[in-house]
From TrEMBL:
Residues 330-398 are annotated as: Disordered. The keyword Transferase applies. SUPFAM superfamilies: Protein kinase-like (PK-like). Signal peptide: none annotated. This is Protein kinase domain-containing protein. It comes from Corchorus capsularis. Keywords: ATP-binding, Kinase, Nucleotide-binding, Transferase. GO terms for molecular function: ATP binding; protein kinase activity. It comes from the Eukaryota. InterPro entries: CR_Ser/Thr_kinase, Kinase-like_dom_sf, Prot_kinase_dom, Ser/Thr_kinase_AS. Residues 349-385 have a biased composition (Low complexity).
Amino acid sequence: MSKSKNFFDKLIKPFKINSSKEGQNEEDLEKIAQQEQKQFSFETLVAATKDFNPHHKLGEGGFGPVYKGKLDDGREIAVKKLSHSSNQGKKEFQNEAKLLARVQHRNVVNLLGYCAHGAEKLLVYEYVSNESLDKLLFKSNRKEELDWKRRYEIIGGVARGLLYLHEDSHNCIIHRDIKASNILLDEKWVPKIADFGMARLFPEDQTHVNTRVAGTNGYMAPEYVMHGHLSVKADVFSFGVLILELISGQRNSSFSLHNLDAQNLLDWAYKLYKRGKSLEIMDPALAPSAVPEQVAMCVQLGLLCTQSDPQLRPTMSRVVVLMSKKLGNLEEPTRPGIPGSRYRRSRRPPGFSSSHGTSGDSDSRTSESTFTNTASASASASTSALAPDPHGKRPMQG
C-alpha cells in the first residue's frame, strides 16, 4: 500500500469506527497527518477562528459552516466544520477530503490540511480573498469590478483547472457542480474551482455508466438530467453556461429579460448568434473594456460547450487550445441543450473526442432522482420542477 493511499484510508476511518476505538484511530490518523504535513490541531483552529466566532463565518453548505481564520504565521485560512447532524454533509466532507488531497493546481482551491478531534472533523483551505464569482457577477454594485480582461482571464483559468481535473490529475475527476458560486477569486483575481463535495473519480475500466443526478439547476447537461449519463462532457456543459453568464452578467437559472422569445440564457445567446448579433448579449458594464473579437469568440465557445449532443462538445483540452491560439474560425455550434428536450446524436466532427470520464458512484442526496425512461425524465427534468435548496446549492424535487 502506498503512503498516499494509506493516508487517505486513515483519513476516512474516524467516520466509520465506533466510539470505543475512536481515540486509538485518531492517534494513528495524527501520526499519518504529521508525516504528510497536513495536520492541524483543534486548538490551533479554535484560536485562528476566535472560537468559531459567528462574525468570522463565511457561509454554510450541506456539510456545515465555513469560517475565516488566521494562523500564528500570518496565513489566512478557511475552515470547513462538519455539522454533527448532517449525514449527507459527512459524505460530501469525506469525498472532498479524499479528492482535494490528491490535487494541486493554480486554478483549484488548495487543501492545506485537516483536523480530527473526537467528534469534530474539519478541513482547512487557503483563504481566497475576493469571495465567489457569483457575489460579484450578479450584484450590480460590484460587477463593474469585473472588466472584460478579468472575465476573459477567469474563463481561461477555469478552463485550465477543468483540464487538469479531467486529464492531468492523478485520476480523472468530474466536478459535477461547476457554477459561479463554486469559482473563488483570489487577491489577483485568479479563479479557483471549489466545492468538491459531489465530485466523482472516473473508473478507468469503465466507459459509460449511469449515476443519480446531483447538481444545480441551470448548469446541468440535458443527458445527465434526463438519463443520469455522467461524463466529463457534463462539466463542459456547465462551463459553457458559466462562459455565457460571465459575458451577459445574467444568471441562467433565473434568466428573465422582457420581450425576448427565448427559454433561457442559452437559447437567447444562440438566437442572437444565428442572426450575427452575438455582441448584443454582452453585459452593459463591459462596454468600456470589451474586445469585440474576444467577446464574439467566447460566445461561440460557450455555445459549442452547451450543445445538446455531448459528443459535439469540445474537450477541455480543445477549449484551452482554442483560447490560447490567435482568433480564428471555430466550428458552427448546434442548438444548445435544454433539460427536458430530446436530441438526436450527431455524427462526430473531426477534432472532437467522444464523451469519456464517467462515474459509477451513486449519490444518496434526498434531492436526487434516477431517471429510467424518456417520458418520466422529460417531466422530471423541466426547469419548473427543480427549485434550489435553502442554501442555493442543489436542486430539489418540488
